[in-house]
Amino acid sequence: MKVLEGQLSVKGKKIALVAGRFNSLITKQLIDGAKDGLLRSGIKEEDIILAWVPGAYEIPLIAKKFAEKADIDAVICLGAVIRGATAHFDFVAGEAAKGISKIGLETGKPVMFGVLTVDTIEQALERAGTKAGNNGFSAALGVVEMLSLIDEIN
């Protein structure tokens, strides 16, 4: 049996980051983590592009625009949706997740979900670089592994 596994190193790939400005205190930390992960994995800084959108709900549209571009190899979606006292959280988090997941299937490119969906600001901070690591960094490693695996399959 032949087993295929992506590596945590790629070269010559161009990555788009799409980040929600809402909760930017958290999102900026996720961006820093993603950039760190990409640079450590062999992506050059000039091959990373960042686009800001108003919030998590708007991420899928711009992520799809990037994924459709021939010169972009993968997209990392970053943001933070923090539960409040209304049902707004459920709509925003659900639609962002649904939209982001469709893009990879439609385009055949890795599109990583690095949007935090948490109950409290404390949980968001934990996942943006304190106790629970940095989900932006994890999303970057995930996209690198997927790109490597796709190259291996092709």
From TrEMBL:
<protein>
    <recommendedName>
        <fullName>6,7-dimethyl-8-ribityllumazine synthase</fullName>
        <ecNumber>2.5.1.78</ecNumber>
    </recommendedName>
</protein>
<feature type="binding site">
    <location>
        <begin position="80"/>
        <end position="82"/>
    </location>
    <ligand>
        <name>5-amino-6-(D-ribitylamino)uracil</name>
    </ligand>
</feature>
<feature type="binding site">
    <location>
        <position position="22"/>
    </location>
    <ligand>
        <name>5-amino-6-(D-ribitylamino)uracil</name>
    </ligand>
</feature>
<comment type="pathway">
    <text>Cofactor biosynthesis; riboflavin biosynthesis; riboflavin from 2-hydroxy-3-oxobutyl phosphate and 5-amino-6-(D-ribitylamino)uracil: step 1/2.</text>
</comment>
<comment type="similarity">
    <text>Belongs to the DMRL synthase family.</text>
</comment>
<dbReference type="InterPro" id="IPR036467">
    <property type="entry name" value="LS/RS_sf"/>
</dbReference>
<feature type="binding site">
    <location>
        <position position="113"/>
    </location>
    <ligand>
        <name>5-amino-6-(D-ribitylamino)uracil</name>
    </ligand>
</feature>
<comment type="subunit">
    <text>Forms an icosahedral capsid composed of 60 subunits, arranged as a dodecamer of pentamers.</text>
</comment>
<dbReference type="GO" id="GO:0000906">
    <property type="term" value="F:6,7-dimethyl-8-ribityllumazine synthase activity"/>
</dbReference>
<keyword id="KW-0686">Riboflavin biosynthesis</keyword>
<comment type="function">
    <text>Catalyzes the formation of 6,7-dimethyl-8-ribityllumazine by condensation of 5-amino-6-(D-ribitylamino)uracil with 3,4-dihydroxy-2-butanone 4-phosphate. This is the penultimate step in the biosynthesis of riboflavin.</text>
</comment>
<dbReference type="InterPro" id="IPR002180">
    <property type="entry name" value="LS/RS"/>
</dbReference>
<dbReference type="Pfam" id="PF00885">
    <property type="entry name" value="DMRL_synthase"/>
</dbReference>
<dbReference type="InterPro" id="IPR034964">
    <property type="entry name" value="LS"/>
</dbReference>
<feature type="active site" description="Proton donor">
    <location>
        <position position="88"/>
    </location>
</feature>
<keyword id="KW-0808">Transferase</keyword>
<feature type="binding site">
    <location>
        <begin position="56"/>
        <end position="58"/>
    </location>
    <ligand>
        <name>5-amino-6-(D-ribitylamino)uracil</name>
    </ligand>
</feature>
<feature type="binding site">
    <location>
        <position position="127"/>
    </location>
    <ligand>
        <name>(2S)-2-hydroxy-3-oxobutyl phosphate</name>
    </ligand>
</feature>
<feature type="binding site">
    <location>
        <begin position="85"/>
        <end position="86"/>
    </location>
    <ligand>
        <name>(2S)-2-hydroxy-3-oxobutyl phosphate</name>
    </ligand>
</feature>
